[in-house]
Amino acid sequence: MEEKKTPIVKQPPVLFEKTQLLVEEIGHTLGGTIITYWNNPRGTVCSDDVVALHEILEHVGKQEQIFLFIKSNGGNGRAALRIVNLLRQYCQRLTALVPLECASAATMVAIGANEIQMGPMAYLSAVDTSLTHDLSPIDRDNDRVSVSLDELSRAVRLWQKENKEEGINPYRHLFKYVHPLVIGAVDRAESLSIMLCKEILSHHVDDEVTAMQIATVLNSKYPSHGYPILLKEAQAIGMKATTMDRQLHRLLLELNSLYSEMGQRATTDFDEVNSHGNEILNILETSGAQVLYQQDKDWFYRSEERRWITMNDHSSWRKNVVENGEITKTTLHIN
Predict the structure, then answer these.
(1) Beta pairing class for 33-39 and 316-323
(2) Based on the domain organization, do 241 and 101 belong to the same domain?
(3) What is the DSSP letter of 223?
(4) How far apart, in whole angstroms, are the C-alpha atoms of residue 251 and residue 316?
(5) Are 234 and 116 in contact (CB under 8 A)?
(6) pTM surpassing 0.70?
(7) Interatomic CA distance for residues 266 and 309, integer angstroms
(8) Structural domain containing residue 20
(9) Per-residue CA distances from 246 to 29, 97, 99, 119, 121 (Å)
(10) Are residues 105 and 240 in the same domain?
(11) What is the CATH number of the domain that holds 104?
(12) Span 206-252, pLDDT tens digits
């Protein structure tokens, strides 16, 4: 009987040489220093990104102006504050380049810039905070779901609208599905989100009333966390948002295409319940240096719990640097 061969574990491509050519061209077009901050759909803005960004900024050194290309669906708001604070220590003026999605915590990073240049497909989003608490409800895959204050508030208002009898407390019924501590934590998280936005805006907005207005609108105006804030809406809110140059937009889309190729899923299936995942989630880059986070681990489906668990996790941050015309590859140990 022929022995079944073990599949070769797939690896995502690292296109450092190609991305460097584009980064150099973009920098030449802008006449300044370009830094890229790219997340694939399963990557997030996180605290580790702050350390990774520091590696890039140390390579760049202090500049009069930095152009930051952002493409991300968001993540941790506190990490966004730290990212903006770090960038501001290395430049006097910061310009955000947004050709595509720049949502949630990534919007927080963008509002820390003196100017936001937006392409025709670009959008920002609301930053109202949702969180996944240890006591959050469980979905059909046995995973904790995120809960937002806007969702809770709308559920309460709907209950009050449909049940107008006096003496009925909607929270008594809501507590059957959402733990009281989760509701308290989400309420505190929204206050934190407004505070984070105000602190980020303070880097270039001197008027506290204007900063508070922008922060409040981003946190409470929109009916959906994913509501796309387009160029005209961003301007109406009070942001200094402008139309991106067409040539610059074309180059950024080319760079995004290379990053998307690097960030493709590289999953190797061994059988119905065992697989290996290899995927580049976050990429930061400038001329001469690139830092990326690569997920590299085994997955096992535990049927009795109806969820996937990980094993043999070798995920890590990795750095590529051009030194004397040669590419040096190292591992960054970030905990």
Answers:
(1) unpaired
(2) yes
(3) S
(4) 29
(5) yes
(6) yes
(7) 18
(8) 16-126+222-270+279-292+314-332
(9) 11, 12, 10, 8, 12
(10) yes
(11) 3.90.226
(12) 888 999 999 988 887 777 777 899 999 999 999 999 999 999 999 99
